[in-house]
Amino acid sequence: MTDQKLKILTIAEYNLIATKDPVGSYDRRTRENLYAIIQKLSDSRNHLSPLEFTVFQKFKSAQFAPLGEKDKKVKIEVLRYLFSTRVRRTARVTGITLAAAVLFILTVYHFFLGVETQKQVDLAYYAGLSKLGLASQQEIAMVENSLHQTEATLVQTQKKKEELEKMVARLIANNKVASNFKSIVKHIYGDPRTVYTKKAKTISLEFANKRIARYNTDPDMWYLLGILETGNLKVFYNNEQILEIEAIFGRKGEETPLGEYEIKNRLYEPTWYKKEIIKGKKVVRAIPFGDPDHEIGHWWLGLKKLGPQVHGSYGIHGVNLSKANEFFKKNFDWRSGSAGCPNIQEWYLDFLANVIPLGTHVNIVQKDKWVKST
Questions:
Q1: Burial call 215-234: b when 16+ CB within 10 Å, e when fewer
Q2: Which DSSP state fits 202?
Q3: Which of 127, 147, 191, 355 has the fewest CB atoms within 10 Å, measured from its CB?
């Protein structure tokens, strides 16, 4: 009898969602399917049957969580990172100790031993190597050179880390300037010292145990403005602009629809549904994250159109970083724009995905009305 009470959903779709919890934890594919069903109900809300309307009311604000298995994997990865850090630290100390020992021995050999004594040391040294079947003089020289190179690399790596910390510390003092904050976000992306900490109704961005910024998670405190004419996405918090970043919008024939939206969901390592023409027919291919053809980055910020609905699904996402110039080629050649979704670079996307709350208002306009024409 249930199928006779459905107008929009299939029995399979109804059975999938009817038994779920709006705040339950499910695997990624299940969550994607559930959000798709909710969107389908939302798109046809004026034509729902009473049964479907009840389901829609229950799930229209659903926020599904990932399964606990993901948390376990994250913990394992954290432990693996900490272990590898200790190994690297030990290797570094060992390398420096060995290098120092070699340097000390070579210094004593060259500056404190006479020529005859040096010859006796050489004979004893290589005689011992010969008995043990170890490396020749040339091979030993290669080992010594490798040790020196390892030491130099470790010193250089540490120097770069210290320079980054100093640079961020300088910029933090003036991080209300949008250009400085852009630089901070870009430079600390992917660094293990970068941490987003959630507490009650706030989220903090920290680097090397220093707080860079703290935000309220109330969506009314946030606002995003996408400007097609200039290819920019402006980010406002508490009525102040904190970022203005380059963005790619839809190419000719697949223009990004103008209007008001809100961020409805946030997906990590999302599946990309790519439109393709195969044998003259338009099909949609599901491309999982990690596939070489996957081109939308680590995050998907799903957009829900407010007011008149539009065909298709839109969201703010990244680009394929393996294609070095892909972003700027698209951004500066309108013909090679996106398929309609706003695209931003991965370091900005990661920041927004961690701090922007669901329900944040997004407005896509053709031209910024506050910019005077010249």
A1: bbbeeeebbbbbbbeebbbb
A2: E
A3: 127
**CA distances (Å), origin 281, targets 134, 278, 284, 285, 339:** 68, 5, 10, 12, 18
Q: What DSSP character marks residue 162? A: H
pTM (predicted TM-score)? 0.54
Region 87-100 average pLDDT: 74
Report angle CA 64, 47, 307 to the nearest 5 degrees: 70
Q: Tell me which fold the domain 220-365 belongs to.
A: L,D-transpeptidase catalytic domain-like (2.40.440)
- How far, rounded to the nearest angstrom, does the alpha carbon of residue 354 sit from its chain's CA centroid? 9
Q: What percent of the chain has pLDDT over 70?
A: 68
Let me know if 243 is exposed, middle or buried by CB neighbors in 10 A (0-12, 13-18, 19+). buried
What is the total residue count of the chain? 374
Taking the C-alpha atoms of residue 224 and residue 305, their distance in angstroms, rounded to an integer, is: 14
Q: Where are the domains of the chain?
A: 2-66, 69-172, 178-213, 220-365
Nearest 10 degrees: Cα torsion 55, 57, 58, 61: 130
Could you tell me if 203 and 217 are in contact, meaning their C-beta atoms sit under 8 angstroms apart?
yes
In sequence order, which residues have a C-beta less than 8 Å from that of residue 170 and are 6 or more positions away? none
In this predicted structure, what is the pLDDT of residue 93? 76
334 has a pLDDT exceeding 50: no
Kindly list the strands in the beta sheet with 202-207, ordered across the sheet, starting from the edge strand earlier in the chain.
194-199, 202-207, 210-216
Place of tokens 């020529």: 115
189, 344 Cβ separation under 8 angstroms: no
Confidence of residue 66 (pLDDT cuts 50, 70, 90): confident
Query: What DSSP assignment string belongs to 246-257?
Result: E-B-B-TTSPPP
pLDDT digits (tens, 9 = 90+) for 204-261: 999 888 888 899 999 999 999 999 988 899 999 999 899 998 888 988 888 899 999 9
